Description:
Elements: H1 7-17, H2 21-30, H3 35-45, H4 50-53, E1 60-68, E2 73-81, H5 84-87, H6 90-105, H7 119-130, H8 140-158, E3 164-165, E4 168-172, H9 173-184, E5 189-197, H10 209-218
Antiparallel strand pairs: 1-2, 2-5, 3-4
Amino acid sequence: xxxxxxxxxxxxxxxKTGAGMMDCKKALEATEGQVDLAIENLRxxxxxxxxxxxxxxxxxxLIESYIHAGSxxxxxxxxxxxxxxxxxxxxxxxxxxxxxxxxxxCQLVEYVSVNDIPQEVVLKEIDIExxxxxxxxxPENIKKQIVEGRIQKRxxxxxxxxxxxxxxxxxxxxxxxxxHIALLGENIxxxxxxxxxxxxxxxxxxxxxxxxxxxxxxxx
Length: 220
C-alpha cells in the first residue's frame, strides 16, 4: 500500500534539506514516503539547501549575451551571485549562457517569474479569459474555475522560471538555478533580461517574421 504523504512529512523533509515545499512533496511521492531516499534524490538534483540560500543578497555576477540564428536574435541577461569568485566559475558562466539561449528559444517569455508580472497585466488576462465565448453560458462557479486555470497557465507561459529547460525538459529553469545554488554554495538570481529580434517593430514585406524566426530556432 502506497503511503499517503502528509503535510508533516513534507515539513520534516524541508527542515532537513532546505528544499522547496513542492520539491519535497515530489521527492516523497517518488520514494513512497521514504525520507532517506527522498533526501538522497533531492541531493542528486541539487535541490537540498538551495532554498536556504535564496534569501541572501546577490550583487555580483555577470551580463551574458547570446546571438543566434545568423545574428537575427539577440539576448542580454543579468545573472547575479554573491561573490566575484563564483561569477568567474565556469559553471556559473555556463548557467548564464544556457539561460540566454533559453530566452532566445522562448519568445513568449516576458518576465523572470510569475511574481514579476504587473497586476495590470494579470487583470487584463483575466478580462480576456472571462469574456471568451466558450465559457459564456457556463455556471459562474465553473466559469471561475476555468478562468483561474487558464490564467495560471498563461502566467507560466510568460515566466522564465516556469519554462522547461530546453536541454533537459525533466527540469524547469527554476530547478536548474537551484541546482547551481547547491553546487556553487551561493544565492543566484536572474535579475533581468532583454531580447532583440532583427526588424522587430518595423514594417516588413512578409508578415511571417516571427514564424520564420521560430523555424530557425527549431532547425538549429
